[in-house]
Amino acid sequence: MPALLRRILLAPIPRLLWTGILALLLGRLVFWISPALMRAPNVTLTGASRNAALTVLVFAAGLWLFERKRPRDAGLGLSGSVSQTSRGFLLGALLLTAVTGVLALSGSYRILGWAPVPDGTTRAALLGHAVLIFLAVGVFEEVASRGIVFRQLEQAIGTWLAIIVSALFFGFGHRNNPGATWVSSVAIAIEAGALLAAAYVATRSLWLPIGLHWAWNLFEGPVWGSPVSGIGLPVIANARFPGPRLLTGGDFGPEAGLPAMVLGAALGVWFLVLAIRRDQIVTPAWMRWLAGRLRRRPELLEPAPEPAPVTPSSAA
Fold first, then answer.
1. 231-251 average pLDDT score
2. By CB atoms within 10 Å of each CB, which of 21, 53, 186, 230 scores lowest?
3. Would the pTM count as exceeding 0.85?
C-alpha cells in the first residue's frame, strides 16, 4: 500500500470508522455463536459483562491492527491498575456523597429507611450484584467513550475540541434513558463526559475514570437510593427527593440536577489544571502549522515603511 494512502486510511477519524466496523463484525460473530448472550439486556450482569468484554476486545484489536499499539500504550495496562482504579473509586464516592449531602441540606433528599429486599435474596447479595454490574458498566463506557472515541478525536482535533465533542456524544448518548430530557443530556455532558475525559487526560490512564464512573453509579443508586440515569436500583437507602427538579434532576436522578453539574464541573476543571501542569494537552500538527501561519500573516500584510522624504539641496 502506498505510504500516502496508508497515512490517510489510518488517520484518527478513519480509525474510528474501522473500529466501529470491527465492533459490528465482532457483535455479529458472537450473535451467530450465542444469540442468547447478545440478547441479554444491558442492565443485567450478563449483558453488562458482555458489553465490557467485547469493548475491551475491540479496543485491543483496533489498537494492534490500526496503530500497532497495545492496551497499556493507551492507558489500560495492568501496571498501576489497582491503585488508579482505587483513586478513581474514592473520588467518585466522595463526589456523589457530596452531591447527596447538598441535596439533603437543601431539603431535597430524605431517607425513609432501608430499601425493601425482594423475597429469596439478601441485601448483601443485591449489593454485590450491583458492584459487579457497575464495574462492568464502568469498563464498557470508559473504554468505548474515552479509550476509543475521545482518544481518536484528541489525535485529530486536539484535547480541547475532543473534550467538547466527546462530552456531547456521551451526554446525548443517554437521551433515550427513562426520564431523560435535553437538560439531563447537557448535564451528563458537563459533569460526566467532560469530567471523565479530563481525568483521562490528566492521568493518561483509563483505570482512574473507570473507578470514578464505577463509584459514581454505585453510590448514586444502590447506596444513596437515587435513580441512576433514570434507572432505579435502590439497595441500601429507601430515599425520596421532595425538592425542585432543578436540584434533584426529577425522574432522571441527581445527575440532571444543579449540585451534580456544579461539583462535577469543578472536579473536571481541577483535572484540566492538573493536565496543563503535567503538559498532557495534545495539539495536532495541523493545528500547530495553522497557528504558525496565522502568527506570520500580520507580518506579511504589514505595509512597507515609506521612504524618507528627499530634501532638495540649497542653491549656491
1. 91
2. 21
3. yes
